[in-house]
Amino acid sequence: MLLAVVPLLLLAVQYDPVSAGKTEETGYLINSGPGTEFVPVVSFKGRENNCASGMLWKGWEDDSAWCTLKAEYSRQEEDGVPFQRVTVTTVTFGRCQFTRGIGGIRGKQYMLLMFKARASHVMPVVFGIRMNDAPYEFHWESMMRTGRKWAEYTRLVELDAADESAGLYFFLPGLMTFDIMDVSLTKLDRKEAKKMKKAMIKKPAKPKPRLWKKRMRGVTVDLRRKEDDVEDLLKWNVNFVRVHLRYGDLVEVTPPYKFREEGFEKLDDMLNWCEKRGIRCLLDLHGMPGKRDVCEEKDRDLRIWEDFRFHDLLVETWKKLANRYVNRGDVVAGYDLLNEPNPGNFTPGSPADWYALVRRLIAVIRETDRDTPIIVEPTAWGGVTEYAFMPEFDDPRIIYSLHYYQPHEITHQGVAVVGQGDTKNVRYPGKVPNGTMWDRKKMLGTLSQVFEFQDRTGAEMYAGEFSCIRWAPGDTGVNWLRDFVDIMEERGIHWTYHAFREYDGWSLEHPDNRDDTDPDTDNGRYRLMMKYFLRNAK
């Protein structure tokens, strides 16, 4: 083969699936090599699909019918070697995805996945083994950061179980040209897998120096709170608050979008009250003109992902904040650039390019304030799965944030405004309506992309929001909160509970009975979280 291949993950031992010896437990599940036939694109399960056209490997299917995009599949050749090309020319919603079914998988299974890939520009591409029927969950998931040169990717896959129709999926995050070749998925027996695993173990990156020297354990608050509220937080042993700067607090919501000095003065008051009590504050730009992500569509404003003028307004707002608070001292613990960005796609260079906007915001803040940590959230509302696409920024004083409410069938049950009003009496641990079992093991699995990023980069991490609705049945709230906070503590991740004296559904100071709206701290959620806050006093 004449193609130049850059090995991304080298094995300490060589493995040839062809000579490994085929038994009932071993052998190819997928072998899309140079001899693979190309056929007109077939849509997944025969769905009507106006998103994709062209020629795709035989046996593979496009699964983009539910998206709003255009993807062209084609057979290409380089130095006499054929390969598959996917060109995504338009993305409004969703991600181009293509799949190859591998049949049913039951019990403990080991596989070796190998392929070569490149792309038109550096982009993170997610791939993994996913169920092909509802609830369409990943059994195993990984990520590659593509470049312009061919790179070789090798992953050992371990599955506890799967369903009757699993498939290997590739997800392309935006406008790009993606080339792929020599895809093989080989079943291994236990002995082979053990040998592979030992050869592929990589040590985590050395953790970067901590920007927040003390572990942060706190709550989210807003500017409606008064000094008495902050005094109560001191009694709770909270050492940190994430201050929501809500839609309309700092900037008028109608043109010409003037700054509101009254809002900045309220923020000054909050900083003074917290500084007096040794509580540090994270400034969280929670809403802005162009970024009001609320459940009622008539009140929603997401023009920031369509119009660069709202980027400029955000940049000017952070410039003013940095100038005002650069010398404010330790009470300002950091700047959270924008709450839960959700552009819907990764189109480079467009207003929907969140990470390009992040780089602009970092640059304007650093013109004035070189030291205060900057907090960056991933797209999809700060979602944990989006860490597959999270870049590592050059600035050494970045803390990476996540928000966690999975699954909504448990944490948001009975909250009709987010489409979960028909979900009730769902316990944790337990099965949600689609049959998926949710427990600590499942929770850990959903956080795998976060931990992979943390281990790979050594980055400092922060869980900016998490909660479970107070009327979840029985001990569901206590169990869910205990598992999540324990995981964060074990991984050395800072956290803030959502929320303090905001919506009573999240309130630790209200009972488990939904109909009882009078404050009452005689509940398990309150007692549990007070034990965690007590760690701040040690």
Describe it.
The protein is globular. The protein has helices spanning 190-200, 227-235, 261-276, 308-325, 354-366, 379-382, 408-411, 440-446, 448-457, 476-490, 524-534; strands at 6-7, 27-32, 38-40, 52-57, 60-62, 68-78, 81-93, 96-103, 109-119, 123-131, 138-146, 151-159, 166-172, 176-188, 217-222, 240-245, 280-285, 332-336, 374-376, 398-404, 430-431, 437-438, 461-466, 494-497. With 538 residues, it is an alpha/beta fold. The chain has 11 helices and 24 strands. Helix 10 (476-490) packs parallel to helix 11 (524-534). The chain has 2 domains: 6-199, Galactose-binding domain-like (Jelly Rolls); 217-537, Glycosidases (TIM Barrel), CATH 3.20.20. The longest helix is centred in the middle third of the chain and has 18 residues, at 308-325. Mean pLDDT is 88; it is low at 1-25. Strands 1, 2, 3, 4, 6, 7, 9, 12 and 14 form a 9-stranded mixed β-sheet that branches. An 8-stranded parallel β-barrel has the order 15-16-17-18-19-20-23-24. Strands 5-8-13-10-11 form a 5-stranded antiparallel β-sheet, with no helix packed on it.
